[in-house]
UniProtKB/TrEMBL annotation:
Residues 1-29, 72-150, 279-307 are annotated as: Disordered. SMART domains: WRKY (SM00774). This is WRKY domain-containing protein. It comes from Gossypium schwendimanii. Residues 107-121 have a biased composition (Low complexity). Gene3D superfamilies: WRKY domain. InterPro entries: WRKY_dom, WRKY_dom_sf, WRKY_plant. One of its GO terms (molecular function) is DNA-binding transcription factor activity.
Length: 307
DNA sequence: CGGCTTTGACCGGCGC
DNA sequence: GCGCCGGTCAAAGCCG
C-alpha cells in the first residue's frame, strides 16, 4: 500500500536521464538560474521537510548508476526515437507533446557505470522516429525480436523512512523483486490511470538504507489526483510529473555528472522533445502541461503555488 | 465488491 | 546454449 501519509523525508536528490545530445544549457545561462532554483526549490522542499541532498552524495549517485548498469549496458533507453511511444497509449498524441526529459544519447565517453538511461548505441531499426509506433507493447504481446521499448526515465534519491512517497498520483504495485547485491527489494508501480503507462520503481540504497531511490519511467498524461488518500502531495509529483527537476544533478548515460543545477529543460522550456536525438525542436506545449506554468507546472497543489 | 498488494511464475535480454 | 537477472504477469488473498 502506499505508505502512511506524511513524508518524513530528509533529503531528495534528483537525477535524471537527461543525458542527451540535446544540449544542456550552458553554464552562463544557468548559473543564475541555478541559484534561483536552488533557493526556490530548497525552500519549497523544506516546507515539506525535504532537503536536497547535495553533491556530497555523489558517491551515492555513482552507486545509483550501478543500479542501472544493466539497463544502460543494454542500451535500453538509449534511443527514444520511435520508442517514445508516449505514455498515453491510444490517446495518440495527447501526451506526445508532453515529452520527457531530453533523454537520449549522451555521447560523453566515460568508464563510469551509467545512470538509468541511455546509451548511445541503438539498432537503427528501432529508430524510426517517434509517433509512428504504437505505445509500449505489453511484453506478452510483444513481437518476437522487438526490443523492449523504454520510456525516458528520471530518478532521484530521497532520504526517507518510507519507501513509497506520496507524489500526487495513484500507483498500483505490480511487482516486487529482490535486487542483486542489495538486501532491499525493488518495488514496481504503475500509474492507476488506465491511459497512463507511467511506471516507477522504488528501492532502497543498499549502502544507505535511509535513501530511497525512485525511478520514474514515462510521463503522466493526466493531472495528478491532487491529494491522494488524504495524503500530502509532494514535490516528487511535481518533478515526476514533468520530469523537469528544478534542482538536479545531471548525469549522462554513463553516469557522469554533466552539471548541477537546473535542468536543461527548465532553462529552455517546460516541454521537452520526445525525440532528442533526431530533433531538437521543442514540442508544442500541451494543454495538460502549460508551457509557462513554471517549474512545478500545474501539478503543484494550490498550497504550494504561493511563493 | 472493487481496488490493491503479494508472490511465484514466466519471459526476454545479455554475458559468458 | 545456458544461466543470471530485471521486468512483468496474473492468480490469490487482503482490506475498507
Amino acid at each position: 500500500m502506499e505508505d502512511k501519509e506524511g513524508l518524513d523525508p530528509a533529503g531528495t536528490e534528483f537525477k535524471s536521464d537527461s543525458s542527451s545530445s540535446w544540449t544542456l544549457a550552458g553554464p552562463d545561462s544557468v548559473s543564475d538560474s541555478i541559484n534561483y532554483f536552488f533557493d526556490r526549490e530548497s525552500s519549497i522542499l523544506s516546507e515539506f521537510g525535504w532537503n536536497i541532498l547535495q553533491l556530497d552524495h555523489a558517491d551515492e549517485i555513482e552507486r545509483f548508476g550501478e543500479l542501472d548498469r544493466t539497463d544502460a549496458s543494454r542500451g535500453l533507453a538509449g534511443n527514444f526515437s520511435g520508442s517514445q511511444s508516449q505514455s498515453c497509449g491510444a490517446a495518440g498524441g495527447s501526451c506526445s507533446g508532453a515529452a520527457s526529459n531530453p533523454v537520449g544519447s549522451a555521447e560523453v565517453p566515460t568508464s563510469n557505470p551509467s545512470v538509468s538511461s541511455s546509451s548511445s548505441e541503438d539498432p537503427p531499426e528501432k529508430s524510426t522516429g517517434f509517433g509512428g509506433k504504437p505505445p509500449e507493447i505489453p511484453s506478452k504481446v510483444r513481437k518476437k525480436g522487438q526490443k523492449r521499448i523504454r520510456q525516458p526515465r528520471f530518478a532521484f534519491m530521497t532520504k526517507s523512512e518510507v519507501d513509497h512517497l506520496e507524489d500526487g498520483y495513484r500507483w498500483r504495485k505490480y511487482g516486487q523483486k529482490a535486487v542483486k547485491n542489495s538486501p532491499f527489494p525493488r518495488s514496481y508501480y504503475r500509474c492507476t490511470n488506465s491511459k497512463c503507462t507511467v511506471k516507477k520503481r522504488v528501492e532502497r540504497s543498499s549502502e544507505d538504507p535511509t535513501i530511497v531511490i525512485t525511478t520514474y519511467e514515462g510521463q503522466h498524461c493526466h493531472h495528478s489526483v491532487g491529494f491522494p488518500r488524504g495524503g500530502l502531495i509532494s514535490h516528487e509529483a511535481a518533478f515526476a510529473g514533468q520530469f523537469t527537476p528544478g534542482v538536479s544533478q545531471f548525469y549522462n548515460s554513463q553516469g557522469v555528472q554533466l552539471h548541477k543545477g537546473i535542468s536543461p529543460s527548465t532553462t529552455q522550456s517546460q516541454q521537452l522533445p520526445i525525440e532528442v536525438r533526431e530533433s531538437r525542436a521543442l514540442p508544442e506545449p500541451t494543454s495538460q502541461l502549460p508551457k509557462d506554468e513554471g517549474l512545478l507546472g500545474d501539478i503543484v497543489p494550490p498550497g504550494m503555488r504561493k511563493t
